[in-house]
Design brief:
The complex is a heterodimer of chains A (about 300) and B (about 270).
Chain A: H1 2-7, H2 29-55, H3 72-79, H4 81-114, H5 119-128, H6 134-145, H7 150-157, H8 177-199, H9 203-212, H10 217-246, H11 249-254, H12 262-271, H13 278-308
Chain B: H1 2-28, H2 46-51, H3 57-89, H4 95-107, H5 110-123, H6 130-154, H7 159-166, H8 171-200, H9 203-209, H10 216-225, H11 229-254
Classes of the chains: A mainly alpha (about 300), B mainly alpha (about 270).
């Protein structure tokens, strides 16, 4: 058991400890757990439950309105054309961002780990945009890729495109290219940091041993390195998917008014002057949370089976 | 072919990390930048003189954001690292449920739950206040700290504490002289993440703080809705400096032999 803990990285819900030989039970643990439990129960679980209740028609904010309890808000949400278009866009953006950021981050991390020269400089550059706010990232993408952005100016200058209108619309576009680019720009380095950290762990010794025994890089990659960093990639993709699915700032800056992602639509419904839209907004928020939860659960189940093979 | 491929790919990566900043920087010092021009005809410090106007929106935004992010960073780091220690080193009742409660906010969008809790915030007078915004910012920050610190404490050798106690040090002394120095890298990275998440947060602040709490992201969004890209550029630069300064002090702990982000790898 202990041995397995050292070689196998941690996985969801199981933060294993090297110093865990018979974890100590202590009465005092409650004081370690209580503040976080209190904060997250009231704010997070409370918010989730109150959201559901409001989506069902409880706590109506409309003065003098008889409380109508039921699933009407959910029907409204699915019948709403803006919501339906938003769901398609949101899935597209989240899936493409997660897929490509994972592939690119994996390639870059492996390359960095094999590079002898400039390795620390490359890691520093990777870290550099971790703390850059998403809003700034989206602004940078907008000013770079819009029709009057710097790339359009360059292609115009060299005669590749003709004028600003000759440049393809890739920001504030219906497909979501701009949103995806912004997520890639932020999430690739985030995933690189996770993967590079895993690559610096005990796997280096295993890899060294395999190398001494004459295993090729390709073989070591498949049999030693990838299995070892797999849990880190898995956690990373979950965080990236959930974030790109539910974020508001980036699609607000780089998206269109219609279609817009579910989070933007939900906020618009919530702040709509017509207060009758509030339960629909809550229904949409609840649906989003449940869908993300189910997808992450399914993904974990699938990959856990895959990992066992 | 193979020899060229790696430097080419990594070079492209480095280029794309920095390229988006180029337009932001140029815009921040441009006195107008008409379309076909590759570079502005004239430059000016107008953006920065507005940005550093002591009575201006940006300076006030920086102050509000700094206060909120510092308080959120400290609260999240303190309570989250306690929980991280509990998860990594102890067994307790309902541990599974607690871990679920900690992981869920990393997955469920903060907007969804904050919309739900807003009704209570209004009822208890937390809406439109800095206190309310700080509470809302704890939702996305605390889970990150718990994950990072549970990773840190998972590699923590408890026997050092026990030796300290055996040698007669009080629990407080052990904590100050033994535990804290050992987990300091984890704490630093936790604080970096909590501060940066709070510093960058827009939608939760808007929802809870309304127009009353004007953090820097609120100011930047207002500029983005306008058409003065010089202001957008200058505000963006001001916006990213404090997180980068924080990174400067924590970067050596981000990827290292005893890296602190491995905790995130255990989500």
């Amino acid at each position: 058991m202990t041995n397995k803990n050292i070689t196998a990285p941690t996985s969801m819900f199981k933060v294993k400890s090297r110093a865990s030989k018979g974890k100590l039970k202590e009465r005092n643990v409650i004081w370690l757990v209580l503040p976080t439990a209190l904060v997250l129960t009231t704010l997070f679980a409370g918010g989730f439950i109150f959201g559901i209740l409001q989506s069902l028609g409880f706590f109506s904010v409309i003065a003098g309105d008889e409380e109508k309890i039921g699933f009407e808000a959910y029907l409204n949400a699915f019948q709403n054309e803006t919501v339906r278009a938003g769901i398609i866009l949101t899935f597209r953006v989240a899936i493409l961002s997660t897929f490509f950021s994972t592939i690119i981050a994996l390639a870059i991390s492996l390359m960095i780990s094999r590079t002898k020269r400039f390795q620390s400089a490359l890691i520093a550059i990777t870290q550099f945009n971790i703390p850059i706010p998403h809003v700034v990232a989206a602004t940078g993408i907008l000013l770079t890729f819009s029709q009057s952005g710097i790339i359009s100016r360059l292609t115009n200058h060299f005669g590749i495109t003709d004028g600003s209108s000759g440049f393809p619309i890739v920001t504030n576009d219906p497909f979501g290219y701009g949103i995806i680019m912004s997520y890639l720009w932020k999430e690739v380095p985030f995933l690189c940091i996770l993967i590079l950290s895993a690559l610096r762990g005990p796997v280096t010794n295993l890899d060294e041993t395999a190398k001494t025994l004459g295993a090729s890089y390709r073989f070591r990659l498949r049999k030693v390195i990838l299995p070892y960093i797999f849990p880190s990639i898995l956690s990373g993709t979950i965080i990236v998917f959930a974030f790109s699915f539910g974020s508001y700032e980036v699609p607000y800056i780089l998206g269109q008014p219609y279609p817009s992602t579910v989070s933007v639509v939900a906020y618009q419904l919530y702040t709509n002057r017509d207060l009758a839209n509030r339960p629909t907004a809550m229904a949409l928020a609840t649906i989003t949370s449940v869908v993300i939860g189910l997808l992450v659960y399914a993904y974990m189940k699938l990959t856990q089976q895959e990992g066992r093979k | 072919m193979k020899v060229i491929f790696r430097p080419l790919f990594l070079g492209l990566f480095v280029f794309s990390v920095f390229f988006p900043f180029l337009s932001i920087i140029i815009w921040s010092i441009a006195a107008g930048w008409r379309f076909p021009d590759l570079l502005p005809e004239r430059y000016s410090m107008r953006g920065y003189s507005i940005a550093f106007d002591p009575n201006g929106d940006i300076v006030r935004g920086v102050i509000t954001s700094t206060i909120i992010a510092l308080i959120v960073g400290v609260i999240a780091t303190v309570i989250g690292s306690a929980a991280g220690r509990a998860i990594a080193m102890y067994n307790f009742k309902m541990k599974k449920a607690f871990q679920f409660l900690v992981l869920a906010p990393l997955i469920v969008p903060g907007l969804a739950v904050t919309m739900g809790i807003q009704i209570l915030f209004i009822k208890y007078g937390l809406s439109d206040t800095v206190r309310g915004v700080i509470l809302a910012h704890l939702i996305p920050t605390v889970p990150y700290v718990v994950m990072i610190m549970s990773g840190t404490f998972a590699n923590f050798d408890r026997s050092y504490e026990e030796q300290g106690q055996v040698l007669g040090a009080s629990r407080l002394t052990v904590m100050r002289k033994v535990t804290l120095p050992m987990v300091l890298p984890g704490l630093a990275v936790s604080f970096l993440f909590a501060f940066v998440i709070s510093w960058s947060e827009y939608i939760l602040t808007l929802l809870v703080g309304g127009a009353a709490v004007k953090t820097l992201p609120m100011v930047l969004f207002a500029f983005l809705r306008g058409s003065d890209l010089t202001l957008v550029g200058a505000a963006s630069i001001v916006f990213m400096i404090p997180p980068l300064i924080l990174l400067r002090f924590t970067s050596k702990h981000l990827v290292g032999r005893t890296s602190s982000v491995t905790g995130l790898g255990s989500v």
